[in-house]
């Protein structure tokens, strides 16, 4: 806001040299060698009025009035004009203000640039800090994930080993039961074979006894018949 106000003041100062120049030219017209020079030829004006049919006294009165008005106007204008020294002083003030304004603008730019650099450095540090924190969080998550994976893998391996042990035990039990059943079947088969052998022996023995009995009966019958 201060720089904008300063710029508006300087923009107003820009119109001063033109005004001072116009006033200075008017002063050159009004003053010549330090004495006032009237721009009206009173004699020619009186003669002109007389040529228009006015009496001499009226023409002189009108000329005197015009001269007085012109004199008063020139006095008022001379009071409102400035001198060369004042004009130079004003130009020096304007140049000084302009130089001061430029220095203020440059200082403000340097200040804003330094603030921008500080903000940029702060943002860069914040970004680096966020990157570091994010990197640490990622490493932590990886470690936790690796730990969980190892934990699950170890649990699965333990379950697999237990399942293998159970399967091995079941297979061993089934093998023992199969062996016991095979031995039992073998014993029963041997027992049946022994029983069959005994039965065969009894049958042979019975057959032999029967044949002997039949032979004895036949011999007895033959003896009786003879």
TrEMBL record:
One GO cellular component term noted in the UniProt record for this chain: mitochondrion
Pfam families: CCDC90-like (PF07798)
Swiss-Prot/TrEMBL keywords: Coiled coil, Membrane, Mitochondrion, Transmembrane, Transmembrane helix
PANTHER family per record: PROTEIN FMP32, MITOCHONDRIAL
Compartments reported by the entry: Membrane; Mitochondrion
Keyword Transmembrane helix: yes
InterPro entries registered for this protein in UniProt: CCDC90-like
Protein name: Uncharacterized protein
Stretches assigned to coiled coil: none
């Amino acid at each position: 806001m201060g720089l904008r106000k300063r710029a508006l003041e300087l923009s107003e100062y820009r119109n001063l040299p033109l005004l001072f120049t116009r006033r200075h030219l008017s002063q050159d017209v009004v003053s010549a060698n330090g004495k006032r020079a009237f721009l009206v030829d009173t004699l020619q004006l009186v003669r002109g009025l007389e040529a228009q049919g006015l009496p001499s006294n009226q023409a002189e009165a009108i000329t005197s009035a015009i001269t007085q008005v012109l004199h008063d106007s020139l006095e008022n204008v001379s009071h409102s004009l400035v001198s060369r020294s004042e004009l130079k002083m004003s130009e020096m003030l304007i140049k000084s203000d302009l130089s001061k304004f430029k220095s203020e603008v440059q200082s403000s730019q340097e200040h804003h640039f330094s603030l921008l650099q500080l903000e940029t450095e702060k943002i860069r540090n914040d970004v680096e800090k966020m990157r570091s924190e994010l990197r640490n969080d990622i490493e932590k998550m990886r470690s936790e994930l690796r730990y969980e994976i190892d934990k699950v893998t170890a649990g699965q391996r333990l379950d697999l080993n237990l399942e293998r042990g159970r399967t091995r035990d079941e297979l061993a039990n089934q093998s023992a039961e199969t062996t016991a059943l095979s031995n039992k079947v073998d014993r029963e088969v041997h027992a049946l074979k022994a029983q069959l052998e005994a039965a065969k022996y009894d049958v042979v023995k019975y057959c032999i006894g029967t044949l002997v009995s039949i032979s004895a009966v036949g011999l007895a019958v033959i003896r009786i018949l003879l």
